[in-house]
From TrEMBL:
UniProt protein name: Dipeptidase
PROSITE patterns according to UniProt: RENAL_DIPEPTIDASE_2
Pfam families found in the cross-reference section: Peptidase_M19 (PF01244)
């Protein structure tokens, strides 16, 4: 059993109108997912930065409708997941699908828009993508500012609703502001900066803070975040796991693949079907119990929304 905390299938379906059922152009489609050991897949609402500001929320809603119309509704064995209770009670034959938000640029300055998305089932919220928005600066914004007053309102609301605040993509100052304010921080898809110097990765101080807070950390399969290159091998993911384990992160680790979010490929982790073989190859190195914790136990244990 595997839980994957991040993919961009909704963006691909919105942009290209692929068939989710069996399109070979998707690294995660229904038929591939069904054959895999991925039990629960998180689907990110990611509005591309080239969408005009006035249309961004409408596009986010379009992606929500795609999620329900093309991923949930057609399949009796795909269940919409919004709580820990639903995660635990998912039937053996079923797959779970969860909504997340990658970037609050889609809500502008309007907290009610975020409330609507939460009411629709979003259960993890990344405040930024790489650029700045009304809540905070992203990691590529040269200004490097932290949470705005509106961003503080957003985090406070997420605390009230027991929703994860996702620190992946945040500016460095934004990360620390969130850690000081959020009751439920997590990193959906980030690796170790000391092993690959991409700014989207987390440094030792950031990882230490997340581990001290018992936050969930998703190792991601983006070549540049693994080795700084445009290609990587699956085995190169292991040093990132080892690093966080040495820091005491056994109860924090998980996976956030970022399938569909990138064009570059990790050999041996091309699509969702490779996930199963990857996890099986971890068992001789880490043992069954630890692999189960990384694969799904930590995610369920730390999921903040109880019911």
């Amino acid at each position: 059993m595997i839980i994957d905390a991040h993919c961009d299938v909704l963006w691909k379906l919105w942009e290209n109108d692929y068939d989710f059922h069996d399109s070979d152009l998707l690294r995660l489609n229904y038929k591939k997912w069904k054959k895999s050991d991925v039990k629960v897949q998180c689907f990110a609402i990611f509005v591309p930065d080239d969408v005009k500001e006035a249309a961004q929320y409408d596009v986010a809603l379009e992606m929500v409708h795609i999620f329900f119309d093309r991923i949930i509704a057609p399949y009796d064995d795909v269940k919409f997941i919004t709580s820990k209770e639903e995660l635990i009670s998912l039937a053996p034959h079923a797959k779970g699908a969860m909504l997340t938000l990658e970037g609050c640029h889609a809500i502008g300055h309007d907290l009610n828009k975020l409330k609507t998305l939460i009411n629709m089932g979003v259960r993890a919220v990344g405040l930024t993508w790489n650029q700045a928005n009304a809540t905070c600066d992203g990691i590529e914004e040269k200004r490097g500012a932290g949470l705005s007053s509106f961003g503080e309102e957003v985090v406070d609301y997420l605390n009230e609703e027991r929703i994860w605040t996702d620190v992946s993509h945040l500016s460095y100052q934004g990360f620390w502001d969130v850690m000081n304010r959020s009751q439920y921080p997590m990193a959906s898809h980030s690796n170790v900066l000391e092993l690959a110097g991409h700014p989207r990765n987390l440094d030792k101080d950031q990882l230490t803070a997340l581990i001290k807070r018992k936050a969930w950390i998703g190792i991601t399969f983006v070549p540049e975040f693994i080795n700084g290159q445009t290609e990587a091998e699956w085995i190169e993911v292991l040093p990132h796991i080892d690093y966080i384990l040495r820091m005491g992160g056994e109860d924090c680790l998980g996976f956030g693949s970022d399938f569909e979010g990138i064009d570059d490929i990790v050999k041996g982790l091309y699509d969702v079907n490779d996930f199963t073989a990857f996890v099986q190859q971890l068992i001789p190195r880490y043992g069954q119990r630890l692999v189960e914790k990384m694969s799904y136990v930590n995610f369920i244990d730390k999921f903040p929304r109880l019911r």
